[in-house]
Specification:
Arc Repressor Mutant, subunit A; Four Helix Bundle (Hemerythrin (Met), subunit A); three-stranded antiparallel β-sheet; 3 strands
Length: about 325
């Protein structure tokens, strides 16, 4: 396909694969088509590959949007022995494509997958609010495609818990209740404790180096007054890195799906600098315990970090729910 040609134009490749059309100049959202990076050989020991038929494809797709540092310079071949900080950056660029390993060296995403990635990113970052309608025709116009790929993209988002489809009403951004948010965090606490036990029992030097670089990045972001959501994104990526190093596909599927559903709320709860500093301190304590082989402390800190995150999210959501009543009073 010639660069810049809209998907759905005559001559588009068979099978629905290709790149999205040019972003309309009048819109600030959706963003342009997600960039694709070659998964580096050096990361094979840091991330466990998954089957190309993995049902949770959207985990990788949304991670594309969270990897904000992809530039042309990032797409060049990385050194044979990258520094830990560089390894983290390369991980952020490559992790999205591990779910597609086996298709091609540089995988091509279907049009519905590309749309789902960008709409999902807008949901996670709060550009599309809970309960907001996902109008098929409006999205089709924005992406320069027919309604068919948009409909398929919405089904992907529904499978991941980011969209809800109502008969005769259409799709809306999923609006979780306070109780549902509590339940998801309770489940995440239990699953991440399993992850912590597995990591403590078996982890590679590459994983430890990447985690160390990630914690250093979190500490830097925790000192910035307005980090623009980068802290929440980096924390999410480190959590996914850990679960994928457990070599347990079903555990990975469950945790990544649950993490995506709560990530949009983490943006809100981690906005205050004090909250980010407290979270970064727990990441550092956990890393120190892991490096010195203190399994009990590492597991306890990992659990505490997620529990505190859940409490902070519930507290912020409760405060937001009470604000309209205060204004009326």
């Amino acid at each position: 396909m010639r660069p810049g040609r809209p998907v759905g134009a005559r001559g588009a490749p068979a099978g629905g694969r290709g790149r999205l059309g040019a972003r309309p100049s009048r819109a600030t959202w959706p963003p342009g088509p997600p960039r694709q990076a070659r998964a580096s050989q050096e990361l094979k020991t840091a991330i466990h590959p998954a089957s190309p038929s993995h049902p949770q494809k959207i985990v990788g797709l949304l991670t594309i949007q969270l990897c904000s540092n992809i530039t042309l310079s990032n797409l060049t071949r990385i050194p044979a022995v990258p520094r830990p900080s560089q390894l983290l950056t390369d991980l952020e660029n490559a992790v999205a494509f591990r779910l597609f390993e086996g298709r091609q060296n540089t995988p091509t995403l279907t049009v519905p997958e590309q749309i789902a990635a960008q709409v999902g990113d807008a949901i996670i970052k709060g550009k599309l609010r809970p309960g907001e309608a996902l109008n098929e025709q409006r999205l089709a116009d924005s992406f320069h495609v027919s309604r068919g790929p948009v409909r398929d993209a919405i089904r992907i988002l529904e499978r991941e818990g980011l969209a809800t489809i109502y008969p005769r009403r259409g799709a809306v951004v999923t609006d979780l209740t306070l109780d549902e948010v509590r339940e998801i965090f309770e489940i995440r606490v239990g699953l991440l404790e399993i992850v912590a036990r597995k990591i403590a029992a078996n982890h590679s030097p590459e994983y430890l180096a990447t985690l160390r670089a990630g914690v250093e990045k979190l500490e830097t972001l925790a000192r910035i007054a307005d980090d623009r959501g980068q802290y929440a994104e980096t924390s999410y990526r480190l959590s996914i890195l850990s679960v994928r190093n457990c070599d347990n596909q079903r555990l990975t599927q469950m945790l990544t799906a649950l993490s995506l559903q709560t990530l949009r709320y983490s943006y809100i709860s981690l906005a205050p600098i004090e909250r980010r500093q407290a979270s970064a301190a727990l990441w550092r304590k956990g890393l120190d315990a892991l490096e010195r082989g203190d399994t009990k402390t590492y597991i306890a800190i990992s659990r505490q970090r997620v529990e505190e995150s859940g409490r902070a999210v519930v507290r912020r959501l409760s405060e937001s729910a009470q604000e309209p009543a205060r204004r009326r009073a």
